[in-house]
Amino acid sequence: xxxxxxxxxxNYVIGNTGVIAEHGWSIFFETNHGNFLFDTGQGKAIxxxxxxxxxxxxxxxxxxxxxxxxxxTGGLLDALSVRQKxxxxxxxxx
Length: 94
Known about the structure:
There is one protein chain. By secondary structure, the chain is of the alpha+beta class. It has helices at residues 46-52, 70-73, 76-92; strands spanning 3-9, 26-31, 34-38, 60-64. It has a 4-stranded mixed beta sheet. It starts with a strand and ends with a helix.
C-alpha cells in the first residue's frame, strides 16, 4: 500500500526555504485510495507550504479535522476554496 505523509503546518521549520511556520498542525496524506488532508493549521501557512512542497490541494478527496481549535481548523476555508476552484475549472473545461 502506498502511503506518504507530508507535514504542511507545524510550529517549527528549518532547511526549507520559503516554508512558513505557525502554531498549528496539518498533514497531507497520499494513499492508494486518494489524497487526504488531516487538519488545516491556522490558515496562514497551508496554501504557501503546499505550493513550496509541490502539493496539489485540489486533489484532496476528504479533509479530516481532529478537533475544533483554531490551530487545527483555521485553514479550512482556504483549503476548501482551492478544492472549489478546481472543481469549477474542471466543469468549465468540459
